[in-house]
Amino acid sequence: MNRISDDDAAEIKASEEPLPPGLYIVATPIGNLGDLSPRAASVLARAGTIAVEDSRVTAKLLQRIGAKRPMTPYHDHNADKVRPGLIARMAVEPVALVSDAGTPLISDPGYKLVRDARAAGIAVTTIPGPCAAIAALTLAGLPTDRFFFLGFLPSKEKARADAIAEVAHIKATLILYESGPRLGATLKALADGLGDREAAVVREISKTFEEAVSAPLADLATRYAELAPRGEIVVIVGPPGERAATTAEDAEALLRAALSHMSAGKAAGEVARATGLNRRDLYAQALTIKARD
Ligand code: SAM
After folding, report:
1. 18, 39, 257, 260: most buried, per Cβ within 10 A?
2. pTM of the entire structure?
3. Ligand 1 within 6 A of 206 CB?
4. 225 in a domain, yes or no?
């Protein structure tokens, strides 16, 4: 794991001014501790209390930055009971909100805390940072101009199929969180409900075994049918209908890149799969490129 660099540590130490009272929503790393921003560390180190999902997880983060702060458990099972007390504290001291990893409120607790804090006239600010959904979107190589976040799909088959049917006509890239053991079934349900769209399984972002596997949904469903991958997973599904139009220049560039390390037949297959262009035409083009070069 990466450590906070000396430069970062100096910057964090430099800000020793007390924080004004309020609610500070603090994003934390999703794998690589080096992704904790200096500002996030500085706020955590100065918070009166930190509302946490799991104090053991946040204690490790605090240890990394050499801070010891009081923590208040705030999770799905106690939120309604704990919230009024936290709101009262925010009026007189800085209260930070973190989740176990990533951006609080995104498939994590917190929105009611923000809602009630704002309603009570408390100053609310956010310290932005890692979020698995957005990080996966940047890795998937699928359209990013419009996207729709689904969080976790229901685990029961019928409810999952219904949830997928609800979004089938949305003209946007879809983002879903999933776990390894459920990935195969989810990909199959997505292929059944959405058709064979381009998709990506993005795993272990910012960790040693980070990977992004891109293929049509049906191929991904086959690939992961038996093999439950380890680690944390985001599934990205491209929008319905049109594949991104590929120009003749794009196709030639893709073919050339593929030909640098594979045969004409394989290169044509790869580029056809990635672009939806005709494999036979691409094969002929690949042979022409080879003969020309
Ligand atoms: N609030 C978090 C965020 O901003 O990303 C998400 C919390 S949600 C309870 C946890 C899910 O996020 C995991 O089950 C996984 O689907 C996804 N996730 C978290 N870290 C990840 C990582 N390093 N790589 C891939 N997916 C990750």
Report:
1. 39
2. 0.81
3. yes
4. yes
